[in-house]
Amino acid sequence: VKIEDYIGKAKVEITAELPKGTEIDETKCNLDGGTYEKETNTIKWTKEIENIDTFTNGKYEETITKEITIVYAKDYVLKDANLKVTGKITTYYPEGYPDKGGQEKPSDDKYNDPEENPGNNPDDNPNENPEEKIGKIIIKYVDQETNEEIKNITKPEEGTYGYEIRDTIGKAYETEEKEIPYYILVRVEGRTKGEIKEETEEVTYYYRKQNFNIGIDKTIETINVNGKNAKISNNKAAKLELNKKDIANTEIIVKYQIKVTNTGELGGTSRILELIPEGYEIAYLPEYWKVNRDGSLETKVELEAGQSRELEVVLRWENEENNLGVKTNIAKIEETRNEANFRDTNEEDNIGEATIVISIKTGEVVSIIVIMMIITALGISGYITIRAIKRKEPEIKDIKFLK
Prior knowledge:
Layout: E1 2-3, E2 7-17, E3 35-37, E4 42-53, H1 54-57, E5 60-61, E6 84-92, H2 108-112, E7 134-143, E8 148-149, E9 163-168, E10 172-174, E11 183-189, E12 193-195, E13 201-209, E14 214-225, E15 228-229, E16 237-242, E17 252-262, E18 268-275, E19 280-284, E20 290-291, E21 297-303, E22 308-317, E23 325-337, E24 351-360, H3 362-389
Parallel strand pairs: 7-13, 16-24
Antiparallel strand pairs: 1-5, 2-4, 2-6, 3-4, 7-8, 7-9, 10-12, 11-13, 14-15, 14-17, 17-22, 18-21, 18-23, 19-22, 20-21, 23-24
């Protein structure tokens, strides 16, 4: 408070404006003598100063400091926690106050009118209670993929993470990097700290989404033929040759291994679908599988980042001659989910396949062909011989001798 060239009484009013849309819990606040006005969402302090005589005692100066504790009634995310504080000094002669210095009690109109009271015009007295100029810094937290501000997905009602700093020009400021769930900071554009300027500035923190990827792979673990494990040189594709006469008495059981791996940075779940190829039936099924109406198998796998889980399926080949050929067993990721609702970044690894070829032994087929060729050849030869035997001899009707 600073008062010059005045005799009389003064009233000082200080008002602190709280952030818009907030509400405080008065029972838990310490307002240091202030009064909270709910209608205007402000805290006000008033002080009466008596017997001011600057002509005799010199310029009147007083510093008024208030230390307050504010407890908000709800949880808020404040873009700007600073309170807007304004002050007002009213000078007047109270009723019955002795006339000193020839002054009169000023009306509000006269007090604010530069022509009636030029001493109260801030432009005429730049050093007396000058109006402070306010600058602004806008801080944003942006998804670099969409170039949009990141929304608070854990608390949607709080909007985005951005905020503003409003303060006196020349005052130091510093912005902050935020730890945002499911995001990683990539770069920053703008002055993250410095002094507030007159022109509005922006500071933008760019983040990328955490990588989310669950992949699947399928391999052949064992092939058991009539109780003995066959040698497997390639666990993605194998070939078996059977004697044709042994097909009906051959039992083939195949154990497949399915490995589901989270190679991303974010945990999540996946729904796995196992497609049993035609000509195979279930020999053994772990309890985590569910059999669907269409005959496919289904299970859910939950994995944290970097984790993997192995599943197995055991199938039996239906030993029929018309069930030969190539059979591919497919396992695929039908659906993935995570808390952040991010898409799987690599869908190319969502399918795993393993193939088995069952055929008749090549040598046996060749022998049959040779035998058929010999039989055919013999048949043709016999036909020619028989035709030759049945041919009629020519008849001799007359013989003439030459002299």
